Amino acid sequence: MASYWILAADSTEARLFTREKKFSALVERQDWLHPESRLPGRDLENDRQGKTFSSYGHDQSDNQKHTEPKKREAQDFARELAAHLDTARANGEFKSLSIVADPSFLGMLREQLGQDTRALIDHEVAKNLTRRSNETIAEAVDQR
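and the corresponding structure tokens:
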């Protein structure tokens, strides 16, 4: 079991790496793709909530507060990744977590993580390095 985990992510994909020691080479453990985040907003809008009509006048409103489709998809992906990390933490699979993520996605991910998992975050890098080499990601995490 690797004690050190590094997650590199953006709103469309994520890569999870492990390390045996704090500064050893990264080993890619798992990756996720979230192609819905790449779809144009209009394609995501097809499944929107319905409208309701006011009993007074001619006004209508959305049943739910409107969130931009691309942002909603990114939040869903952040929730999926956070659930995986929370479960792994609960199972004792890591003792330290570093996150390298697109700045806006980093905030979404942080919001979704459980308090106990957030407590294990050793380092955050607000850069989108998801498609970069293992070495580039390791360098970003190791710079302090």
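(Above: one complete record from the training split.) The two ends are 25 Å apart (CA to CA).
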